[in-house]
Each structure stands twice: as C-alpha cells, then as structure tokens.
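pasting for the record
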Amino acid sequence: MSARSVLSVIDRKKYHVTEIGITHEGKWFSGSNVLSALENDTLEDLHPVILLPEPGENWLYAVRKEGNREILDPLIQLDLIFPVLHGSFGEDGAPQGLFEMAGIAYVGAGVLGSAVGMDKALFKDVMRAHNIPVVESITVSRRQIYQDIEQVIQQAERLSSYPVFTKPANLGSSVGITRCRSRADLVEGLLEAARYDRRVLIEKAVPSPREIEISILGNDNPLASVPGEIIPSDDFYTYHAKYLDGKSNLIIPAPLPEAIVKDIQSIALAAYKACDCSGMARVDFLVEKDTLKIFLNEINTIPGFTKISMYPKLWEVSGISYSDLIQRLIELAMERKHENDQTERRFRRNE
C-alpha cells in the first residue's frame, strides 16, 4: 500500500522508476508492474534481479538461466533506492548495509540508525543514556523462556504488577505484541513474542496512555511536525487496529498543551539525533492521560507511507504535501550520499 502511494505521485518526468519487488522468500524481481504480479502471484511475468554489494556503476542485474548456469546481464543503472519496506530485512539495517556496500544512495536512515531503531531493547538503552524518558522494561532471551519460564515470570512480576506487555525486540506493526493481564496471559505472550525474535521485551503498562506521534524530516538539521494522536479501536494499537478494521481515528494536531507539544517535539528530535537517523522517521510516544507524563515508545525509520498514514498526514498539516515530501526525501538521500562520499575508505601510510 505504501509503495503504491509513492509510485502514484513520484514525478515521472523527472525520474525513471524501476520497481523491485521482494518475495516472502527474499527473491528480488523486476518488470513492468511488480506490485500487480506479486499480488496476483504471476511472477512468470517478471524477471529475477540482483544488486551486487560492490561500488561502481550501480548496475541492477537481470538473472537468466543458461543451461545449468545463471548469467547476470546488466539491466539498468540505479541512482537511488527508495526502500518502502517494513520489519526484518527491511528497516533493520540489513538492506541498508547492502546499499552502502553497493555505494548507492538510498532514502532513510543508515545501517546504525535503522538497526538501533528496530531493536526495541537497544533503543531503550540508547534513550536512557541520553536521559530520554522510556517505559521501564527488561529483556529476556528465547532460550531463557524455553528453559526456565518460571524464572522469567518472576522477573516480570518484580518489574511490575499486571498488566505488562510482551514484545519481540525486533519487529514492527505490533506483530507479536501481547497485553498480559495475568500469569496465564504472560506465558502465552512470552511464547508468542519468542516466535518472532530470540530476544523478548517485557514492559510495564502506562496507565491510561494516549498514543502521540511526531514526524521527523531531515539529516543533520531535522524538523519536527505537529503531533498527532491515535485513538485505537482495540485496547492498544494492535496490527488489526492499524491495518484491518479501519476504525482507529487520527486527530491532527493532537489536543495537547503547547508546552507538552514543545517537549514532545524536542524529545523526538533528540532521539532522532541520538540514533544518527537521516531522511525520515516517525517517533511514537505514550502520554499518561491524567498527568501528561511523557514516555518515548519507539522510533520508526521507515514509517507507513500511504497517503493516509500518520507520517505524511502530519507533514501535510505542517505544510508539506505528499508529493513534495517524496521529492524532499530523495534530495535528502542524495545529500547524505554526497556527505558519505567525502569519507576516506582507504588508509594510505605516508612513506
């Protein structure tokens, strides 16, 4: 959905667009209408492609069979990649590492920012080091859960009374997250989260939380949008509430005192810089309803990008249209690539 929205507004007079689709198995394909082919499972209309992890002329290669061998044919030279990917092997630094090794510009955070933003446990540690308020939590391993779940439960109950949340450390879109109101829920939640990652976060629940989000745009001098508030249709912002039932409401700008708005914007920018993010991010907060106490929840380095997603909607209200936002992100990617190219990659010892 996000990719379709980006493709619908990108300036085709200015840019030649090559669509690259990735299957659930991790195979790359290109062709005339990749989105349609993936949706309809008509991959025979596409051709497999590959990007080699070596800097040079940035060729995307078509892969073809010749007897028992696979032959790489140069297909097209790429100037920039606009990754519209979520979750593992999307916004976790893995594809960003490939783009770095290939020496090609790309939209969004680099390897470091992507990896820190994706890993909820590490992200919290970085925030604590910068005195940014986050919800109390502990991190346990899948091995601990499988070998001694009773001890894990005791750790969780020392952390907080119920309810608590269990979350895979590395994932997005609320997949694998459980609100646990009892020991029985906690057991189920731990096992569910362990399906998706070898590290699991156990987190205190914020009482009567308001879900507030801020969009960030820029590289070294980023800007913060007005805040938006999500009124989830479920008891928290679940995958179903985000994408399926269509009943969650967005309020832009969020009805908050001006002082709280400034605090949230300031914290969002500080978190963005602490993770060395670039291009874009959406920063999510939990705000206690009665006290207005602020907790930074997470940072999303590739946020949802449909025309009605929170990230572009916040910028639209802040004065940047969806099409202008796409153009600005491309410019920021080229700017960051130019900066990175100033770095010497080879040490030459003075003779």
